[in-house]
Write a structure and sequence with these properties.
By secondary structure, this protein is α+β, with helices and mostly antiparallel strands. It has a single domain, classed as Ribosomal Protein S5, domain 2 (2-Layer Sandwich). Strands 1-2-5-3-4 form a 5-stranded mixed sheet. The termini are far apart. The model has no long low-confidence stretch (mean pLDDT 89).
Length: 139
C-alpha cells in the first residue's frame, strides 16, 4: 500500500482577556483569513493594523508561503484582534523555528510572543464594581 506524503499543518492559539483565537497554518500562497474574511478587507482598520503587525515584522518572504486561517471568539473586536495577532506570531515562530524572528517580535512588542495575562477583575458583592463599595451614612 503506497503511503502519501503528509502535509505539515500547525494549530496555534492566542488569548487576550476573554477572547480566544485559533490559527491553522499550512503551506500555501500567503492567504491570511480572520473568521473567513481576508485580512486585506478586515474591518475595523485599527484591528486590522494590530493583526498585520507580526506579518509586517516577519517580512513578506516568510508568510507569503503560508496560508493562515484564524477563528476568533469571545471578547470584543480589539481583544479578538490581539488574540489573533498572538496566534499568528506564535504560528510563524513555530513554523520557521527562527530565533532571529523571536527577538524581532520581542523587541517590537513582547505580548506577540508571550501573551498578555491581564484581564478584568471580577465584580464583588456589596458594590457596583470590582473595588467600589456602597456608601454608608451614620447621620
Amino acid at each position: 500500500m503506497p503511503t502519501t506524503p503528509t502535509k505539515k499543518v500547525l494549530v496555534v492559539s492566542g488569548k487576550r482577556k476573554t477572547a480566544v483565537a485559533r490559527a491553522i497554518i499550512k503551506q500555501g500562497s500567503g492567504k491570511v483569513r480572520i473568521n473567513m474574511t481576508p485580512v486585506e478587507i478586515y474591518s475595523p482598520n485599527i484591528a486590522k493594523a494590530k493583526i498585520m503587525e507580526p506579518l509586517l515584522q516577519a517580512g513578506g518572504d516568510v508568510w507569503n508561503q503560508l496560508d493562515m486561517d484564524v477563528k476568533t471568539s469571545g471578547g470584543g473586536y480589539m481583544g479578538q484582534a490581539e488574540a489573533a495577532r498572538t496566534a499568528i506570531a506564535n504560528g510563524i515562530l513555530k513554523w520557521t523555528k527562527s530565533t532571529h524572528l523571536r527577538t524581532v517580535f520581542s523587541e517590537y512588542d513582547r505580548t506577540m510572543v508571550a501573551g498578555d495575562s491581564r484581564s478584568k477583575e471580577t465584580k464583588k458583592v456589596g458594590g457596583a464594581g470590582a473595588r467600589s463599595k456602597e456608601q454608608k451614612s451614620y447621620r
